Model the fold of this input.
Amino acid sequence: MLRKTVVEAIGTFFLVLTIGQVVLDPGAGALAPLAIGSALMVMVFAGGHVSGAHYNPAVTLGVFLRGRATATDMIAYWVAQLVGAVLALFAIRFLKGAVPVTLLTPPTATAFVAEFLFTFALVYVVLNVATTKGNEGNSHYGLAI
Done:
């Protein structure tokens, strides 16, 4: 279990670090999603065969609800993901310093619906490409995720 949670923490760390680096860079523009997707893809390739490469509590919940993880695994993964994300926060703060950020405040309902839909899409893809019996033991699904 230790190896799996370390992989989850590392993958989450690099995913959140990449998001923080490109979202806070006004020059990233249209390349920001490509950088984030690429970081996720390589972390899935690197850790998928060890932990399943969830890197997101919603994915871990989906895998648990599908019956492919125990409650103990789910909680351990959540803790590892939280640790990885918090460490990434400190790294971003160190690398970027105090960056002025323009806060966008979309209507709460709009933000909720957007987050729900795209999180659903992510979990749906993960469950259908990474937790099916035909794909056990390989990480080729990194690009799809």
